[in-house]
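ugh ok fine here u go
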Amino acid sequence: MSLEDDAETLSARWIEGVLLKRDVFSTVERGRFRSERGEVDAVLRRLDRVPWWSYLPARHLFARERKALTLAKGLNVGPELLWAGRSALVRGFIDGVALHLAKPHGDVAYFRSAKAALRRLHRAGICHNDLAKEQNWLRGTDGRCYLTDFQLAACFTRRSRLFRIAAYEDLRHLLKHKRSYAPESLTPKERRILARKSLVARVWLMTGKKVYRAITRGVFNFTDREGGGRRLVNDAPVLAELIRRNIDVRDTAIVAFADRRTGVGLYAFVEADKPSLETQLRHELAVAKGPKPPEHIQVVHALPRDATGRPRTEILQLVAMNQLDLIEPMMANETDRAFLKDILEQRKNLRDRFNFEASGLSLPST
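structure:
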């Protein structure tokens, strides 16, 4: 299938939605796909917009994901492969949020489901190989665990020593997340696994990982922290400090969102009582001559906070990305919905939006 065939198929069957991520290895967006079963929510990964100098590694990662998703069909572990061409593939959308957004504290059933999902994946001869990232673990609205982003997955025809090592590391990374969110449920055997890295993992940490970081962060200028890249890692803390210097600002939280023009945008939610403060803050950031100011600054009456008083950036990130339907499972009661109502109605990022909210968040009426 040629690149022209890919474009023709996508033109006829893909309905563009929200951009989820753009980096030097692919563009990922959420939308709808006209499948044999009708129109379904889906996610598109495409290579036609990657730089020429990263195309070969991007092709390699693309091929690994396509092979793994093909082999994983019917396992109900990750997204279903709906269509694959030469430089694009469409996978089913999993109704849920990433682990770093869901924060399943004390959810023993979720981690039991995660272990079962890994078992099914490994029995099919597939090792994910990228499960240290919380972004690659999803908590579905049904409470179960699903995996995503199979670009580094490896498929095996037999249970070789290399397979057993990769499967062990998959399990160890699962247990690291379990230790973060449900440490009291770790069994003695699981604690022993956590305490013992494989030889390959130890060698990788001492050698290969340093080279990997040097290439991805140096050559490719690529940093993947919750999908935010360098701007979230380097620029956001500086911008937050500059914003807090304003005497009318009580607090601020800055999150990242995928932007079709710049790749990654920043969205600052500023807790203050003056709705007109945005213009003043933009002037102050420009005068400070620091990092590029956030694409969006929204003044809110209060930031949503967790029990410890920290801003709930997981909710704010979904607002910034216009994925309003994914917020609903994170709302505990009508008070939470009422609190978020003004933030949602006044949100700034309306360039890249879709009607996902139609079947999602139900806001209280005024």
